[in-house]
């Protein structure tokens, strides 16, 4: 009986720990990563914490025990505090043809220039995908400037990069005129951002293309497990701090523009981070508005992670959102269709 009592207490203790972790995770979006970078680890594990709490809830419910209220209360709090990582929604592409603007963001990882994917025609397949989906504006991260002439359907482009070893290359292609452009350099980082002001009908819109600090983690749990934990922790927490600094730079630029904005790019962090909350502010997340499923954008084995976003001005109408299961990079492309005036 003592053994049974011990395991029961241990089980309840684990339940309390998991519930407390999810409750703490609800605070993560409101905590600056420059101050407490380690809390961002909780944001990466929120889907797991929700799932485990749900299992505890079901277990206690079927057992008829009052302990179910612990997980139930925490799950309710998390539901109202955190944005959902799964959307129950049936989508239709019928409205895309009526939209004013179709925008895609895609970290193409140099179009497989370094042969990370064992496939001979990655670039051609990406080009076919883009020609088929036909976005009006594309924001590329980790672009290969040797391929810049291949996108013949786009009259306008902004492809300028800082000539510094290790700096990523960003590219924006547009079917609408680009009337202004600029780089936003992130200090002491290989990452950076850019923006273009485009004329769409009678409106001018600012489109940001972001590539925030990478966590430098190989998306394989077996590889992660082999790495020394202290080194991994130090590297990742440093990256979280840099992301927060970069988010503040983007926030300031957003506040100083008079144009309505669309923010695209690879945030290298989830929607539960303070980095995401800082940049998003009162913008709409296209996935939350019209997406479905997990919205996975990064090819992390066995774990759906959403780190690539399209955020749009609150006055725009999000018509559709599409995630693609195209394994042509370590990221998946994301596209949204919007109307510039809500109907």
From TrEMBL:
GO biological process, any: DNA repair
GO molecular function: endonuclease activity; exonuclease activity; metal ion binding
Domain of life: Bacteria
InterPro entries linked to this entry: Endo/exonu/phosph_ase_sf (IPR036691), Endo/exonuclease/phosphatase (IPR005135), TDP2-like (IPR051547)
Residue ranges of domain Endonuclease/exonuclease/phosphatase in the record: 104-331
Record-annotated membrane-spanning stretches: 12-32, 38-61, 68-88
Keywords associated with the record: DNA damage, DNA repair, Endonuclease, Exonuclease, Hydrolase, Magnesium, Membrane, Metal-binding, Nuclease, Transmembrane, Transmembrane helix
Cofactors named for this entry: Mg(2+); Mn(2+)
PANTHER family xrefs: TRAF AND TNF RECEPTOR-ASSOCIATED PROTEIN, TYROSYL-DNA PHOSPHODIESTERASE 2
Official protein name in the record: Metal-dependent hydrolase, endonuclease/exonuclease/phosphatase family
Species of provenance: Cellulophaga tyrosinoxydans
Taxonomic lineage of the native organism: Bacteria, Pseudomonadati, Bacteroidota, Flavobacteriia, Flavobacteriales
């Amino acid at each position: 009986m003592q053994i049974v009592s011990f395991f029961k207490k241990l089980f309840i203790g684990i339940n309390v720990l998991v519930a407390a972790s999810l409750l703490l995770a609800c605070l993560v979006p409101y905590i600056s990563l420059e101050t407490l970078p380690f809390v961002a680890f909780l944001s990466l594990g929120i889907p797991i914490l929700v799932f485990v709490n749900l299992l505890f809830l079901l277990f206690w419910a079927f057992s008829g025990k009052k302990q179910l209220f612990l997980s139930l209360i925490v799950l309710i709090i998390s539901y109202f505090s955190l944005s959902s990582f799964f959307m129950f929604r049936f989508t239709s592409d019928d409205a895309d043809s009526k939209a004013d603007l179709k925008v895609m963001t895609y970290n193409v990882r140099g179009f497989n220039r370094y042969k990370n994917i064992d496939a001979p025609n990655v670039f051609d397949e990406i080009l076919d995908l883009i020609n088929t989906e036909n976005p009006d504006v594309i924001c590329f991260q980790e672009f290969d400037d040797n391929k810049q002439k291949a996108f013949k359907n786009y009259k306008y482009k902004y492809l300028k990069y800082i000539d510094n070893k290790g700096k990523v290359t960003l590219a924006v292609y547009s079917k609408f005129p680009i009337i202004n452009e600029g780089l936003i350099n992130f200090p002491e980082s290989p990452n950076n951002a850019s923006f273009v002001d485009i004329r769409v009908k009678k409106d001018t819109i600012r489109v940001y293309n972001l590539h925030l600090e990478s966590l430098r983690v190989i998306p394989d749990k077996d590889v992660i497990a082999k790495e020394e934990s202290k080194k991994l922790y130090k590297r990742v927490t440093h990256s979280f701090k840099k992301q927060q600094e970069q988010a503040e730079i983007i926030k300031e630029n957003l506040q100083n523009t008079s144009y309505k904005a669309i923010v695209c790019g690879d945030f290298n962090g989830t929607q539960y981070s303070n980095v995401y909350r800082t940049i998003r502010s009162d913008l709409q997340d296209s996935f939350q508005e019209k997406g479905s499923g997990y919205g996975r954008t990064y090819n992390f084995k066995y774990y759906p992670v959403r780190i690539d976003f399209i955020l749009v001005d609150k006055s725009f109408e999000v018509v559709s959102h599409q995630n693609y299961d195209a394994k042509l990079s370590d990221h998946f492309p994301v596209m949204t269709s919007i109307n510039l005036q809500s109907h």
